[in-house]
Here is the input.
Amino acid sequence: MASNTSKTARASVRAGQAGQGGAQTVLGEYKYLIPLAGGKFAYVRNLTNGKTTHLRTDSDAFVDEIRLLAGAGHASKIRAELNGLAAQYPAHGWDVTEKRLVDAGVFEA
Here is the structure.
């Protein structure tokens, strides 16, 4: 936040966001995955609880976090993001990560 924003204004924004049921309204594109270390790790941004976790992409915790997001209705957007990462960084193994998630049944309804 800007340093010239008053405490009252910041408190008002927080109070307004509290009634949104944990969801965030974000202008523009919301990225769920922030790739790290050549695709071995990623920050996973969870829009349902507002937390960002640092996870190894071949871990069960990563699968569980993506499963949680997919269950909340974000499956198609996450798959599109994984496909975009695979196209942008073909040597980082994002296609293998997506296959692992598909094999785990993460994107099934």
Remarks:
- Residues 38 and 108 are 27 Å apart (CA to CA).
- The longest strand covers residues 41-46.
